[in-house]
Amino acid sequence: MRRNKNKKMIRAKATDAFQNMLARMGAFTPSLLESTNYPLTRLTRNLNLMNSLYRSHWLIRKIIDVIPQDMTKNWIKITSNLTSEAITELKSVERKTSIIKKITQGLRWGRLYGGALGIMLIKGQGEDLSKPLDLDSILPGDFKGILILDRWNGCYPGTSLVTDISDSEHGLPEYYYVTDPETNINIDIHHSRVIRFTGDELPYWEWLAEQYWGASVIESIFDELKKRDNVSWNIANLTFLANLRVLKMSDLGQLLSTTDVNSQRELYDTVQSQNWLMNNFSMQILDKEDDFSTHQYTFSGLSDVYQQFIMDISGAAGIPVTRLFGRSPAGLNATGESDLQNYYDMIEEKQESTLRPIVEKLLPIIAMSTWGVIPDDLDFRFNPVQRATEEKLADIVAKKSTAIREARDSGIISDRIALKEYKQMSDTTGMWTNITDEDIDKASNEIDIPVETDFGLEPNINGGLSNEVQQMENEKDN
């Protein structure tokens, strides 16, 4: 039987889902779960809300500030082959222009408002900022710092984008417009003269809706913030109910329903007077037919409930509870080191993805303003975010030094390689900093393989027998 080779493929749209109308379970059922909705709020555009939260809410301020501070607190280390005097000059320019402070500020406003702009201030180049920045035109001492403006401070991106695929800012706005508050005139600034700071990244169409900026980090944590705040306020209000005083009065309901306003007012005055007469020893004056009792409210379980909301907002912010709330780790054998290690790994990832492009764009400008030339091997690395304690550092140095020495004694590496390993260790531990390049060049590059003997003595690390073994061998031959 001949098969039909011209069969048409049937395309159908699958719309299957679980549903139980009688139990009110599943898709499109009238249940509390299915009534949940997630509207598109775009809170980033609510400038008053962003300002109010940052100014009045300590938790929001800390969420905005702590990550930029940790990203820049230990700054960078120049890894180029430069003299210590040249690196000192570069660091002096960084201090005088407050580079670390300005970049931290830009990262902060980018997280709060979704975007910020850093305009490079270069002496003698303020007349026409629409031209691309020419590094060769920068003379020593020309770089004066960075002017940070948030996205609501009169600056906005242009519509034309960078089309050069070799440009690191390909696909981003080519020009930025800043409004002069005195003259109300727009100033065109080329993208090579500015530094972009953005918040949370957005999909393409949302990115366009935000005018090529990002979203405020508050958007993703706002719901968790409201939950935590409401729980905290409710727990605070419950403290007023810790001791309830109950006064029983006969015929109170009839008195309130049948008497006139004056009689009711007299009743209120009587109860108020009884309350005032209660002294510091809780003595209460009552009528012989009245009854007075107290009830205490128990707060068991509230701490666990509140802790869960703290964990939620900590997870939404991406900051451990120990770092965000300043609390010590809770639980048996809890140290908090794993949480902090995950957090510091996240900070290092943000340094590479967010902070590195900023520093790479800024460092050649600072180099031209410092030395008048850009070294061919100009490069840097970020210093470790987490600094080890003295005890932990000493343990690390001892273990690494022992491993290097054993590798050298075993004939795996030469003296020169061993000294290089010791010097490289100084970058992270601060030890062996006095080993110079001359010491490394003078060291032997030959690998000495030890010789095993039957005498059980230490082999000569130079590749031959020790003096004791050699003497015994000579006596044996004679």
TrEMBL record:
Pfam family, one: Phage_portal_3
Domain Anti-CBASS protein Acb1-like N-terminal: residue ranges: 51-404
Domain of life: Bacteria
Protein name: DUF1073 domain-containing protein
InterPro entries attached to this UniProt entry: Acb1-like_N, Phage-assoc_HI1409
